[in-house]
Amino acid sequence: MRTGNEPVTARSPLRLRLWLSLWGLLWGAAGAAVFSMAGLPGWAAACAVLVLVAAVDMAVVVRHIHQGPHYQPGPDVPPYEPPRRRP
Known about the structure:
Number of helices: 3
Number of strands: 0
Shape: elongated
Order of helices and strands: HHH
Radius of gyration: 21 Å
Distance between the termini: 20 Å
Low-confidence stretches: none
Largest sheet: none
Mean pLDDT: 83
Strand content: under 5%
């Protein structure tokens, strides 16, 4: 049920997700480099896939951040009525 205060208290997890994507990108790139120098191509490929996934996620997050906030109903919009249970 919506209480009416969500637009005031809501926080977006996009910036945290951006930092986590960057963290995965850095560690994946470092792992791919180390494993390729160590002669372990399977692990290097797995880290390269992690880098690719982190880069795509980072691009999606940056796109969403640049889109800006979306519509949220203001305080003048009353809360929704809770669904009524059938007896």
